[in-house]
Design goal:
Blueprint (H helix, E strand, L loop, with lengths): L10 E13 L6 E8 L3 E6 L8 E5 L15 E11 L8 E11 L2
Antiparallel strand pairs: 1-2, 1-4, 2-3, 3-6, 4-5, 5-6
Length: 106
Amino acid sequence: MNPDHISNDTTHYNQGVPVMISKSDNEFYHCARLYHLEKKGVCLETPFAPSPGSDVTIRMNECQPACSGCGDCGNFRGKVEWCREHLDGYTFNYRVGVQISGAIDA
């Protein structure tokens, strides 16, 4: 997933969708905001900087306002492809691209 390219298959959320993210080896979840959703990956803003190549778990099944019953919402594992500092005065200081590796049970 290229952070500088938005394909026609991308869903973009201007306000961001609340999701939860955790390092896969850590059960503590952090609040995050999802901004781009593609078939193979997502772009989110997080309060921490996961290292590229690290595994993460993302919980999207609580995205009530943005969920249209499309079946794209759920819990999944992924691998961090890139991470960039994004200082804009808000809580979420990093933009992170995650390639989805598979769905997991809720």
